[in-house]
Write a structure and sequence with these properties.
The chain is of the alpha+beta class and about 110 residues long. It has one domain: Immunoglobulin-like (Sandwich). Helices cover about 15% and strands about 45% of the residues. The chain has 1 helix and 7 strands, in the order αβββββββ. The strands form 2 sheets. A 4-stranded antiparallel β-sheet has the order 3-2-5-6, with no helix packed on it. The protein has a 3-stranded mixed β-sheet with strand order 4-1-7, with no helix packed on it. A hairpin with a 4-residue loop joins β2 and β3. The longest helix has 17 residues.
Length: about 110
């Protein structure tokens, strides 16, 4: 009988540990790529700013970036890189989904 109680208590404790107070299904993700407008080649070291939220990141060598755990909402992405025109794109994030986006940047004419 004592072993049964210990087993039952263990199961109850495990169920509390496995409960997650945050529902991750409430959040979405933006996965994007920044490309050169003329060559269609990925651009690295591009500054990507997310608004609202104020998050910033830089693209990787393959022009990719990712913003995770975002509330379902509409966001603006602003991309900047020396020698290129600043560009902005609007993306809608849906809970528990990934929103893909491709942004192109034109070289500045001097």
């Amino acid at each position: 009988m004592r072993k049964l109680r210990i087993f039952a208590l263990s199961l109850i404790m495990l169920s509390f540990v496995s409960c997650n107070p945050i529902e991750y299904d409430m959040f979405g993700t933006i996965e994007g790529t920044v490309l050169d407008y003329d060559t269609n080649q990925p651009l690295e070291y591009v500054s990507v700013q997310l608004s609202p939220g104020g998050k910033n990141m830089t693209t990787s060598y393959d022009g990719k970036f990712i913003f995770e755990e975002l509330d379902a909402n509409q966001y603006s992405l602003t991309v900047q890189k020396n020698g290129y025109e600043t560009n902005m794109k609007t993306v809608k994030v849906i809970a528990s989904e990934t929103s893909p986006v491709t942004i192109t940047m034109k070289k500045k004419n001097y």
